[in-house]
Amino acid sequence: MIDWLRRNPADLTVSVGDATLPVEIRRHPTARRMVLRLADDGASVRVTLPRWGRTVDAVEFAASRTDWLASQLAGRPRTCAPQAGGTLPYRGRHLRIAWERAHPRKPRVEQGHVLLGGPEETLGARLKRWLQAEAREALSDDLAWYAGRANLPAPPLSLSNARRRWGSCSVTGHMRINWRLIMAPDHVRRSVAAHETAHRLHFDHSPAFHAALGKLFEGDLKAADRWLKDHGRSLYAPFG
User: Fold this and answer.
1) Which sign, positive or negative, has the C-alpha torsion 178, 181, 182, 187?
2) Strand pairing of 175-178 and 108-110?
3) What is the pLDDT of residues 159-197, one digit of tens each?
């Protein structure tokens, strides 16, 4: 059995409720124990184990925790693609999607609605591109504003599609921020921009970093962090 598992890693699976999920085995040089998690897209199970760990043990470890995996799978936000007559989260509120073929193709916000025309079958893709453009503009302004407060030049920005991090800052000051934050309230999005700007001053999470962040951000950091903890996963529902 062990030899079969080693020869056929692509065939490793575990049953989680009604789903059969592939098990991805990852060996890490510094791992001291096995760590199990559901992939961010819910499509596979990942087990990280020490270099000397056995594949068969990893699969058995995953199979012994199917109840936990099922609870994680059930807790994932269900993708609900935007459609005419539905709603779209935008800057902390839900806009009604008012689609009519005769409207201009480019979305625009008007009185609690997002209006757009064009082919209905491309509605979701165009709304996603529009949100990403809105995110780039808003985050560029946020980062420039906080950079000014920190006496730093405005940083380069890339939009991120990450599922486990809202933002990151490289040692060179290049920012990567999740575009989905444009769907969150403004103070939540800005808290991430402030957080990453503070890393340009202190590349760690030391007391000095937190002191700098407290001076940079004008809002309630605890409230912003709490919103992301409670509602952040919901930002993945419209587009997966």
Assistant:
1) negative
2) unpaired
3) 999 877 899 999 999 999 999 999 999 999 999 999 999
